[in-house]
Amino acid sequence: MKKTCDDWAPHFPAGKVGPHLFPEFEKRAKAVSAEVFRVKTAAEAREVVLNLARFTNAKKVVSVPCALQAAAGIEAALRGAEIEVHTDPSEIAAQAATADIGLSGVEFGIAETGSLCQDGYAIESRLVSTLPPIHVAFLDGRSIVPGIIEAFAIIAKVFDHGYISFITGPS
After folding, report:
1. What is each CA distance from 85 to 18, 28, 62, 111, 125, in whole angstroms?
2. How confident is the model at residue 171 (pLDDT cuts 50, 70, 90)?
3. H-helix segments, the chain
4. How many CA atoms lie within 13 A of 119 on its CB side?
5. What does pTM read for this prediction?
6. For residues 161 and 48, which has the higher predicted lDDT (pLDDT)?
7. Within 13 A of 104's CA, how many CA atoms are on the CB side?
8. Any idea what DSSP says for residue 96?
């Protein structure tokens, strides 16, 4: 799928990003009613998503695959639990409005606000994060920046076209 930038990490401010910012990110995200699950392994991530799907009695998921999801085998696990999973762009467009859960990766988190920054150049990324009642975003803990100023500095380096989303709490 189209992206504004294929590799955001080289544009992060040296020495200012990383998992040491996770506690502040989590605190701010929870303050705006987001649920945050910190996992140490791919297996833990898979279990969190499966448990969420079971708890909500999800029948249909739309997913824009990312490396973290793939490493955890989340789509296969959901299918193994007899949950419909749609990943093809045309299927996502057709199914997002009636899906129970949307899955996608995000480029980085912002500790100051508990927000996520998503490269939404591909419409599918926007659909899975806005139409289903539940959106599960996969964030690499090494990709948390301190604040809005750093976030916009990163975006300024890579953005010349496309669509960038900031996700803060449930919508």
Report:
1. 32, 31, 6, 31, 15
2. low
3. 22-31, 42-55, 67-72, 74-80, 89-95, 123-130, 148-158
4. 22
5. 0.94
6. 48
7. 30
8. G
